[in-house]
Amino acid sequence: MQPPAVARHALPPTPVVCKRVVRLQADAPNIRCLFSDGTSQILSRFVAGFIKPADQVEFDPAAIDVGKELRVFHAPERRRSELYIASIGYVTLPKADKRNGYFVRAEVAGSRLGIKRIHLPANAVRDYFYFPNRRHPGSQDETLFDLLKTTPAASPADLRLALKVRMLELQTEPAHRERWIAAERAFNLLANPELRACYEALLRDPETPALFPYGGFGSLIAAGGLSADRETFFATKILSFSPERRQRRFRALLRKIEFFGAYAVYRDSRRKAEVLLDKVSLPLAWDPTWNQWRHLVGAKFGIDATFIRSDKYRLHEREWQLVNWETALPSRVQITIPADIQEVVANARKTYSRFGQFFEVLQGIRERVEREPVERQELRRICSGLGIPSDFDIAQISWKPDYDAFFYTQLCKRTSKMFLFRDEYLFELEGTVVVEVPEQGHATYIFSRPADLQRWVREYARTPKDDIRRNRANAAERLGFIGRVTHGRNPRAWLRNLRERIGEPVDYTLATESSSER
């Protein structure tokens, strides 16, 4: 590790100032910091708790919130000489230094003091996040498992049950808040498979590289010293870290969950969200075999959770790009599932089994609808003659895993006839014909209803979509093209636009909900 300070330092950027504190006084709900030059500055009670009279504080007086970035120089009699308070961004994975010690680097977000990064040795990360009880006499050997009163063999579900019991116990203890925070932090580390593996490795060898949990992003307070060029703060100890967090509530597709042996993971690249689940938080008797047929489950479940920012770097076109992402704190996850979820899951499993049982027959049907449109009733008759049970939904042969059943259900409610053609559904409505591709990201095409539907279907089959959009050779006119409605992020907005296009009375409250949190 490089030395935290050298004899000569670069000057701080203008208008950064360094002032000596003479007094701290309450200024509800904050603290007013009074300086020797007669000026003062409002700080939060938490930040002010690290400052005492006779300390010096370096900050940018032009900042909107001065307390987000400060350097504090303690008076000579105090134990730590310098603190740095800053908002950090991404924290790198552990790297080895020239002395074979490990460290991570945290990016400083929008520094006004000219500091670009914080150098954190692995032992500082380890002691703050993984071995916090080293600071408490008599508890140095207490593990995170001990905090939850469980064992290293505990499964994710066991950990959640242990946390619930521990929370109930701590409600009756006098100093329960500090222990409650410690227990919740222990659970959030152990509930994450990657962080749990890191912790278990640290138990075996304390010199093992320590991961910064969930990638950083939050407010950090560290002790250490600044480099000569003022670009790197070399920390020796982490005093506090608070991640960026926000509450989110939305409904999610069950098929986006990937199932493992003891835990499951919901990931949604559109919402940039990740949620770790166990068999208590997601009370279904799932196992890894569900991954084979989960794409056939159209049900949604509710997520209400506290999310923390956890951006990740991804290699895209030979360049590393930071991708926005959020991860739910395992301790703050609430899941709700539909009342009929068992029936929905059973039907999906049965459908998957029938796809395998009648694979050759269904492949022949796929080849036929690729050549010509076939009406759904005709397909049902064919399936019945081939021994396929009548409750099998033939529309599933064109269904893509990422398709939202909401669109299909709404169109089926309004149709008198439905055709399967290539990878599309053709619906005959009261006054229109609607073409739907059962795949995420597509649009719903709407046409006026023709006098001869069979003839229209044959004409449509010969016409590329691009010709319809551009009216090439009057294709849109011949087919009576009215317009298209994109699926978008809010299915209710799609439904409002669809009803408007097909001539139904429109309820404009259908599109008032936020599309990003549905």
Description:
- By secondary structure, the protein is α+β, with helices and mostly antiparallel strands.
- The protein contains 14 helices and 25 strands.
- The strands form four sheets. It has a six-stranded mixed sheet. Strands 20-21-22-23-24-25 form a six-stranded antiparallel sheet. It has a five-stranded mixed barrel with strand order 6-8-9-11-10.
- Helix 4 packs antiparallel against helix 5.
- The two termini are 48 Å apart.
- Residues 1-7 and 510-518 have low confidence and may be disordered.
Q: Over the alpha carbons, how many angstroms does the gyration radius reach?
A: 30 Å
Structural domain count:
3
The best one-word shape is elongated
Query: Mean pLDDT, nearest integer?
Result: 88
Count of helical stretches: 14
Residue stretches low in confidence (pLDDT < 50, at least 5 long) are 1-7, 510-518
